[in-house]
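[Meeting: bench + compute handoff]

Bench side (C.D.) handed over the final construct sequence. Compute side (W.E.) agreed to return the predicted structure before the next meeting so the bench team could plan truncations. Sequence as handed over:
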Amino acid sequence: MVLSRLSIRARITLGSILVAAAIFAIALVAVRAQVATILTTADSTLAQDDLTSFANEIVANPANTLDDPGTGVLLYVRAPDGKAQVDTVPNIIRKVLEHRDGANEKFTRTVEGVDFVVVGRSIPTSAGKWSLWAARSTASSTLALQGLDGTLVIGGLVLLVGFGVASLILASAALRPVERMRKEAELLGAGPGDGGLPVGPARDEIAELATTLNALLDRIRRSAEREKQMVSDAAHELRTPLSVLKT
């Protein structure tokens, strides 16, 4: 595998980046979903607010003629006789509303590629039931979400790069004692010596490894000394018989 050919430092950094990427992705999706819910609720609330003034006017005096809504306000108000008293909604939405009664409903319709949230309300009066609907374009919310998507992606990439750099620095710092041990072992292997591997002040796994290896080195040195002594003793014991044989 390719990962097995990488250094421990690289594997730690890569693994940390992958885990962080998964966490960031989940967090970004959750944030976007929450913001989308807030924007959708805001559009519905604004549409309800558009209905409120007309609903209050109908309740106060259902016989009065309703004023036209302000510019950009999309309303459809149907009187008890079935005639539209106010109609500023797009034609596609109007056709849908003609077959509804407006009783506390909310739905979404797409008009020329733009989504509209539509809320309805029915008001019973002495003259009959009035049906009111208000529509709000979600174009601004869509643009806000698109801008948020770009911000989240850029922010996520920046955080991911920063996390990767931090992981590399931390991994390098954590493996620095191992590098010192390797260099010391290289020096010990280059020539005789009675030194040992450096043991750091921290009581961690690396310090335990250094302590274990130092104990192993001590046993190897003692074994080598015993073998050297045995060879020396054997040479001394053999020296006298050989001298006799020569004479």
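W.E. noted at the follow-up: The beta strands are 74-78, 84-87, 106-111, 114-125, 128-137. C.D. will use this when planning the next construct.
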